[in-house]
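Practice problem: predict the structure.
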Amino acid sequence: NIGGVVEAAVRGEPRFAIVCFFLSTLWEFLQIELVKAMHERKVLKGHYVQSGEDRLLFDKVEIPILIHLAAIGLYAWGCLSEFIYISTSDYGSDEVCIKSYNLPQLGSALVNEIGMTANSAPGQSRFLYLVYVVLCVALPILAHLIQMTFIIGRVQSRTVEALIRWASVVWCFAGIEVLVIGILAVQSKFEQFIVNVANIENDAFLGDIKSGLGSGFYVLIAYSVVACFLQFSLGIRRSSTPYTQMTSTMGQSGNEKENPV
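Answer:
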């Protein structure tokens, strides 16, 4: 009892290790895309010639359009809805303070007034905020714009196969699924996480801290499933290729050499 109200804020600041983890993950994804592109150029380019009529998973273009609209609607709904909330209260008190965040507000918490006050690593905080905006906002929107352009091109019977390849690359770096999984992992042990970050042996000093997942979290789970299926359904498919025919011909030639008539 000190005759007043003491406000305590627990804040986590980024360190260079998390930036290194991000850069290593980014480099790994770039290597995957580079190896894939080199494989297609060196191995398939010499033997693969477009034949037959290319098609999508669904013959009717209306189905990808509806899936695309559903993905955009779920993304907008999930971004604007409550994503996660944190409730705090003093032990033995009935008053509860609830702070909720949607997807944009969660990223803004990295660089808001509380987050930047006496911050020992302001540059890294801004860098993480920039990464958050690019991976969770900019890239998903860019991927859906490319997908929309691809669908419009298909309706107008234009050759836009390169667009869906770019959409696949952009979608590979979009991080909504990773964010959802990470938030679920942190939220499941949030109380212990706060105590460890605060490094306070007497957790009664922090009061009763709880967290929960809002409706936006579950909407973004549905969005992740629908958006992944959309990208899969927009892939170009062909019934037959000269490459497979050449492989079977070479196999037959080898059998003829082993068993001459």
